[in-house]
Structures are given as C-alpha cells and as structure tokens.
Write a structure and sequence with these properties.
Belongs to the peptidase S33 family. This protein is α/β, with parallel strands linked by helices. It contains 10 helices and 8 strands. Helix 5 packs across helix 6.
C-alpha cells in the first residue's frame, strides 16, 4: 500500500499545501506494533532503507517508510533553499505526528520507531517527547548532537592516506566540491566509512542521486558537503532530552562508521533503558553491507519483537 498524506506548511507567512509520500509493507491492522522508518540525509528519501521492509515477512512487523518533506515523492520546496528558519527540527516532528495520526498508528498496539543517520537524530528527539503509542526505539548510526557528528567526520577523515586528506582539505578550503579530484577523494571516504559494500548498492545510489538533484534540504540544513557544516543544524543537540526517553532503545553503529562511538556515548549514558551494539567492520550503512545486512535485520527484528 502506498499513498500521499496532506501536510500543509507555512512559507513566508503563507500556507502551502504539501503532501508526504508513504509506503506500507504488511498489514497495519495486525496486532503487532507498526515500524515507522525515518530516513537520513536530510533529504535522502526512503529507498535505501527498503531492506527493513523484511521485518514484515521475517518478524511479522508491518513497516511504514516515507519520504520526508522536500525529497523523494513528497512535495519539494526549492523556493525555500537557504531558509534556515523554515528547515528546522519542528517541521519534521510535525510531519511525523501528521503521518502517525493519518495512519492511526498510535492506536491499538502502537508503533516502533527506527531512525537511520539524520533520521536517528530526529527519532531520538521525537521519542524524548514521550509520544503516545511509541513502544520501542532504534537509533541506527545516529548522533546525539551535530557537534559530535562533525567531530566524527574529522576523526574519520584523519584515518585516510595523507594524499587523500590533502586533496579533500584543498578543495574544501577552496569551496570547490565539483572538482573531479575532490569527487574521487570523497568516494574514497564514502567507500571507507559510509558504505563498505564491494559496490555501492543501487538503493544508496538512488538516495545520493536524489540529494544531488534537489539540494534544498541538505544544502540548507547541513551545507555544501559532509565536510562543511554551515546550515540550520548548527548547534543542534538532543543530549539534554535523552533522559526523557521512556521506551526500550537499541543503539547501533559500525566499527568504521561516520557516526563514531563518541556520538553514541550520550545515548548509552543518558537513555534509561538502552542497549548498544557496534557491528565489526561496518560503516554508516551496515544494513546494506556485505556480510552485515542479514545480521543487522536479525538484531533489529529480535529487539523489536522483544526476544532480545
């Protein structure tokens, strides 16, 4: 099942009718909690997380994926590029609330929340508000604050060869992110820390393509490159709110993840009921990587059904 949910926003004081695209796998009327999946980016779209749809046939958990506003099959708002007041956390919280209410996911057995990367930042912040119906939370390669996220990127970059680091630093300083030399060095970074699969999966390539085609969300919230954060997420943190998360929480990242352990530690220390797993040899996209994808799905599934 798929569809679009009306979601109106205010741009420059004017109400703008928008919509959120969603896709459901399984029977949302079943007695099992529904798993709502929040994608990263910001602006990455849901496709690269489609493997989590297997939670339905493997664990009997219906799965809801959606494209956050500004990307994928949801409404795009290119006229808001650079509007850092508009592209803020409350916009995405309101959209998630709207989706939960429209699909009536708070009722009955309630819902689980799984957020990956930026989606994990958002999921943690949302869970701290103790929303009605939330049963369990998965923070997948998320970060407790943007400051820790930028520190993590720098720590990863310093593990690359001196030549690769010098190339990245040269073009970052010049602000030239389109140079073939920069792109080649950035691909080395991506294959080392973002997705360690032998070949970048088509699902991830689709997300990267979408973000490149419409840079409104990522460019405004993050910046021109993963190495240059200057957008509306500057200063963002969930750390003071983490003790308010009342549901069992699974935190995971990869051994070589851009979401370094330093960004997971506040989750582990401050969330009252938490479990933390680091997948050996994994990057930021453990769920897409050779030898890890099945294990990630098994760990997440067993946690959500309460067997582990």
């Amino acid at each position: 099942m798929e569809g679009k949910i009306p979601f109106n926003v205010h741009v420059s004081g004017q109400q703008v009718p928008c919509s959120t695209y969603y896709k459901v796998f399984g029977d949302v009327s079943s007695s099992a909690p529904r798993v709502v999946v929040l994608h990263g980016g910001p602006g990455g779209g849901h496709e690269y997380l489609l493997s989590f749809a297997q939670l339905w046939p493997k664990h009997g958990l219906p799965v809801v994926l959606y494209d956050q506003i500004g990307c994928g099959a949801s409404t795009h708002l290119p006229e808001t590029a650079g509007d850092t007041n508009f592209w803020q956390e409350p916009l995405f919280i309101a959209e998630l609330d709207n989706l939960l209410d429209h699909l009536k996911l708070r009722d009955g057995s309630g819902f689980h929340l799984l957020g990956q990367s930026w989606g994990g930042l958002l999921a943690g912040a949302f869970a701290a508000s103790r929303p009605r119906g939330l049963q369990r939370l998965v923070l997948a390669s998320a970060m407790a604050s943007i400051e820790l996220a930028t520190q993590s990127i720098e720590m990863c970059k310093k593990q690359l060869s001196e030549d690769t680091q010098n190339t990245l630093n040269k073009y970052i300083q010049e602000g030239d992110y389109e140079s073939p030399a920069f792109q080649e060095a950035a691909m080395v970074f991506r294959c080392t820390f973002v997705c360690r699969a032998d070949l970048l999966p088509k699902e991830l390539m689709e997300a990267l393509k979408r973000m490149n085609e419409d840079k409104t969300v990522y460019g405004t919230m993050y910046g021109p490159s993963v190495f240059n954060l200057n957008g509306s997420l500057l200063g963002w943190t969930s750390i003071p709110r983490l003790p308010q998360i009342a549901v069992p929480t699974l935190v995971y990242n990869g051994e070589y993840d851009t979401s370094h352990d330093i960004g997971q530690e506040p989750y582990f220390k401050l969330i009252p009921r938490v479990r933390w797993i680091t997948f050996s040899n994994g990057g930021h996209m453990c769920h897409l990587e050779n030898g890890l994808a099945e294990r990630v799905l098994k760990v997440v599934g067993e946690f959500l059904v309460g067997t582990k």
